[in-house]
Amino acid sequence: MAEETKVAGATAKKTRLRRRLRFLRTRARELKMIGKALVSTKHPILVHIIPMRQCNLACTYCNEFDDFSKPVPLEEMKKRLDALADMGTSIITISGGEPLMHPDLDEVIRHMRRRGMIAGLITNGFYLNKERIEGLNEAGLEHLQISIDNVVPDEVSKKSLKTLDGRLVMLSQYAVFQVNINSVLGSGVKDPEDALKIAHRAVELGFTSTVGIIHDNNGQLKPLGPREQEIFEEVMALGKRSYSRFNEFQHNVARGREHNWRCRSGSRYLYICEDGLVHWCSQQRGYPGIPLAQYTPEMRHREYSTKKFCAPRCTVSCVQQVGILDKWRDPQNLKPMPMTSPATSQAELVQIGQVRGDS
Ligand code: SF4
Ligand code: SF4
Predict the structure, then answer these.
(1) C-alpha to C-alpha distance for 338 and 287, rounded to whole angstroms
(2) Which of 11, 61, 278, 319 is the 20 to 30 A CA-CA neighbour of 45?
(3) Which ligand neighbours the alpha carbon of 125 most closely?
(4) H-only helix segments in the chain
(5) CB-CB contact of 69 with 53 (8 Å)
(6) Is the beta carbon of 249 within 6 A of some atom in ligand 2?
C-alpha cells in the first residue's frame, strides 16, 4: 500500500512537471503568435474546425450538433489542416458536435502540431478517461475547454458538475495540457449561483475559468440582473489567468449594451464546418459558405475589411478576442459579398442570439 502511494505521488509529480513545461512552451508560442498577428494582417489567427457534427448529448439550446453524421475522414481532415497551415494559421481549435467521438482525433491533433499550429479542443468531456487523456497528451494537445451548464443535470443540459466532476479530477491528475472550464449566465439558466460554484471548483482543481452569457430567445441583448452581474464580475476575476481578462466586450454584454468593434471573421478568424466550407462563425453559418480549398487570399482580405451587421449584438467571445489584435487599424467599409451557394438562402442562416453552442 505504501509502495502504491509512493508510485502515485511520483506519477503526480511527473505530470505536474510535464504540465508546467508544456504551459511554458505554449505561452512562448502564443507570444510569437501575437507578434506575428501585430506585424501582418494577412493570415488567420484562430480557426475553429469541425471533424464530427454528431454529438452524444442533445442540449436543448444548441444548434451545433446532429445525431447521425459520420466523422470527416482523416485524410480529408489532414488536407484541410494543410490548407490552413499554408495560409499561415496560428491556432486551431477543434469543436463539434462532440470531437471525442471522432476515431482519429489524436492523429488530427498530431497533424496540427506537426504543421506548427497551436492545438485546442472543445469537448463536453463525457468520453474522457485516463487513456483518452494520455492519448491527448501524447498527441500534443495544448488547450482543452469544457462548458458546464449547471450543478445538477436538468431537462436542458446534462453537462453538469455532478456528471463531470470525476472527469475533471482525472484531468487534474493526468492532463499535461491547459484546461479551461466555461460556465454560463443569462436567460434560460435556472440558478446563476451555479456559475460561481462551477468556477470555484475549476480553480480548486488548478484550471482556468471563463463565463459565457446567453441571450433571450429574441436575440436581443438583455442586461443580466444585479446578482448575475456580481457573479459575472466574480467569475471574470477568478479567470484572471485566462485571456478572457482582455475581453471588455463581455462586460458590455453583461450590461446589455451594444458594442462597437470590428469583427474580422472570414479573415483573421475562420469557422470550417464538417463539409469543409468556410463560414463567418458558428452563429452565422451559411456565409460566405465557400469551400476551404477555393478560399483565396483575396477573399480573406476582403472579409477583413467587411463590416459585419451582427457585430453590435455579438456574444461570440473568441472572435472578439481575435478582433482586439487589429482593433487599432483598418476601419471596415465593405459590404458582405453576395451569397455564392444556391443551396443556402438568407433564411437558412443560423442567426445569433437564439441559440448557443459550446464555443
Ligand atoms: S452544446 Fe455541446 S454537448 Fe450540448 S448538444 Fe451542443 S455540441 Fe453537444
Ligand atoms: S456573430 Fe459575431 S463573430 Fe459571428 S460574424 Fe457576427 S459579429 Fe462576427
Answers:
(1) 9
(2) 61
(3) 1
(4) 2-39, 74-87, 105-114, 130-139, 161-174, 193-204, 226-238, 248-254, 297-304, 317-324
(5) yes
(6) no
pLDDT at 170: 96
pLDDT tens track for 277-297: 999 998 888 889 999 999 999
Cα(75)–Cα(44) distance, integer angstroms: 22
Nearest C-alpha neighbor of 23 from the set 211, 180, 170: 180
Instruction: Give dist(CA 136, CA 265) in Å, integer.
Output: 28
d(CA 100, CA 122): 9
Would you tell me how many other CB atoms lie within 10 Å of the CB of residue 299?
16
Q: What is the pLDDT of residues 223-246, one digit of tens each?
A: 788 888 888 888 888 765 555 555
Quick one: cell of 274?
Answer: 464538417
- Which grid cell sits at 69? 453524421
pLDDT of residue 44: 98
